[in-house]
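Standup notes
- DV: blocked on the single-chain target, sequence here:
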Amino acid sequence: MEVREHITRLDAALGFMATTLPPASPRPTAPFAGEPLLVKDLDLKLANTPLWRGNHVLREHRAVSSHDDPLGRRLRELGFDIVGRTKSAEFGLAVTTEPFAYGPVRNPWDHERSAGGSSGGSACAVAARAVRIAHGTDLGGSLRIPAAHCGVFALKPGLVRLPTTPTFEAWNQHGFLAGRVGDLRRMLLLLGRGQGQGQGEGLGQGEGQDQGQVSGTGRSGTDGPARPLRVGVLASAVSSAIDLDGGSVEAVQWMADKLSDQGHHVLPAHPRVLEQFDQFATKSLPVLAGWLAEEVADASKDLGRPLTEADMEPGTAQMLAMAAVATPEAVRDVAQWLHRLVTDLTAWWEWFDVLLSPTVPVQAPRLGWLSDPDTAMRRTFGMMQYTAMFNASGQPAVNIPCVGSNGLPYGVQLVGAYGSEADLLDLAEQLSPEEAPTPPAA
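- DV (later): unblocked, structure below
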């Protein structure tokens, strides 16, 4: 009960909780027996428990899930004490967590700033030391962006390999946020990824690599890499919506210097296709709208009636309307264009092992800056310029936190080839072996 009281006390100031859940029956022999865990109020289903997806109507009607999904069942079987659900942006569409349903999540570094989104509740809870680990989902940066704003580590898992046909399987991934890289590694094992994929798909599958060997840093922890890695550094904006601030450039350069000091080959380089981000953002809208339509239909089952546009925030309703007018031919054409883009994007990893970039272009903005209806969509895509394409490609990515000279967090992102999750975590731990920075007020 002490853990739950601690969470309640922190939540009173920061507002990261959507709802608490009753204690589960203890499983004393389970691997994670009794370990507190918070899960995001989106997508992850737990039988007979609330799932409101940041929507005020679902909350008012106390909608519940009818069954466990596979990850939910796995978390229960492993013995986690799932204390409650953290706030999400409505249907996960925003990069801030300020839903009408239950008010804003406040950044623990500055309570007048956004905690990011859509997994802002989970990132805030980990940063404030409410729990060591929290679950989230990532549709276009929804784990990594709040991790950067709140100063914690985050892992977006990826697919095992590039799909041979257009697919949207990769876009929305379950993942975790934590105060230490080691905790993310434990959760990676839970997801069945563990110690590399064993199919030559980890870090370093490019020129000169034996395609039949597991490659990369190889669980070397802080002892240094098994071999020097080829690291490309991106430290400029790739979207016209939001420019890159000087502190973000400094954070990336600081990490690049550390990699160079560790013996890696570091040079300015990035996939040129990233510079098509504005076009990517526009073309992706029918894809996101189609995904939203499926989410709304699933939520309607929990509600017991169809959710209408009147039941949603204006931005959500606007996005849903796009799904209604998108023709199958238009969606197919977008899918094919995206598949060509992803093929060009991932080809860069034939020559490089890791891309180092900002996670977001600027530090956490003031509450309200990302929720103004007149500017929200453009600013949202601007914040996603370093993250969203890697949802389309299904590549793994990690956020590493650091603190700027103004005392607020920045996030630096590592992106790897398919199957390199464990290797990316090793590299993150080499760069940042200590616990994530603690907010002054936490």
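- Follow-up: The first strand starts at residue 17 and ends at 20.
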